[in-house]
Amino acid sequence: MKLWGRKNSVNVKKPAWCAAELGVELERVDLGGPFGGLGTPEFLAKNPNGLIPCLEDGELVLWESHSIVRYLADAHGAGRLASDSAAARARCGMWMDWALGKMAEPYRDLIMNLVRGTPETRDEAAIERGLAGFEQALRIADGTLARQPWLSGETFGVGDIPLGAYAYLWFTLDIERPELPNVGAWYEKLTQRSAYREHVMLPIS
Ligand SMILES: N[C@@H](CCC(=O)N[C@@H](CS)C(=O)NCC(=O)O)C(=O)O
């Protein structure tokens, strides 16, 4: 299987981390960011959005990071990261969809302005918006994590992967963080997973 996309992209991190959790080998090909290559006819034929990640598994070509994560778990998980129960799968799907809806923009606001921006290009309103977006979403996760160890339920699963990928930025930036004890404990557990350390905890750039 081939995964197209630079390793420091938050959306590439999700399937790369998932594959490592499952012990599935992926050949990752650098693309996007400084590597370019997203607008070539060859790549646009795979992903007409011209975005990473993109997965190729034989005849199957998939884009959208969460669809790729779900596919990896379904095709290679043997029940490990995605349960057979419809309710448990739906709960994971809920947290994954929620994370994409709630976190993608705040993540972009923070990384573009606090990591990639210069003092001259820094947009303070976007930083405020990003911090508020993270805090609002993480408070929701904190409430659930007070009652269960993982967003996916009793065990780690695909429902934890998107928020886990986004949360690394928030815990790494030099910012003031509100006290969110359950999210903090959940993040600590993530940092103890070797697949998370290897694929998510990379220098932020
Ligand atoms: N909803 C898509 C978003 C994909 C996306 O925005 N990818 C970004 C990287 S995180 C991208 O391709 N940016 C252009 C680049 O890296 O050059 C997903 O979850 O896969």
What characteristic shape results from the CA principal axes?
A: globular
- Contiguous runs where pLDDT drops below 50 for at least 5 residues: none
Rg, nearest Å: 17 Å
What is the helical fraction, as a range of percent?
40-55%
How large is the count of helical segments? 8
CATH architecture of the largest domain: Up-down Bundle
Return the structural class: alpha+beta
- In total, the number of domains comes to 2
Oligomer: single chain
CATH top level label of the largest domain: Mainly Alpha
- Give the strand tally: 4
Give the neighbour order of strands across the main sheet: 2-1-3-4
Tell me the distance between the termini. 26 Å
**Percent of residues in beta strands?**
5-15%
What is the fold named in CATH at topology level of the largest domain?
Answer: Glutathione S-transferase Yfyf (Class Pi), Chain A, domain 2
Give the H and E element order. Answer: EHEHEEHHHHHH
Report the sheet with the most strands, covering strand number, pairing sense and barrel closure: 4 strands, mixed
| Distinct small molecules bound, one entry per kind | glutathione
Could you explain how this protein is built, in words?
By secondary structure, the chain is an alpha+beta fold. It has two domains: 2-76, 3-Layer(aba) Sandwich (Glutaredoxin); 86-196, Glutathione S-transferase Yfyf (Class Pi), Chain A, domain 2, CATH 1.20.1050. It has helices at 10-22, 41-46, 65-76, 86-115, 124-145, 161-172, 181-191, 194-199; strands spanning 2-4, 27-29, 54-57, 60-63. Strand 3 (54-57) and strand 4 form a beta hairpin. The longest helix is centred in the middle third of the chain and has 30 residues, at 86-115.
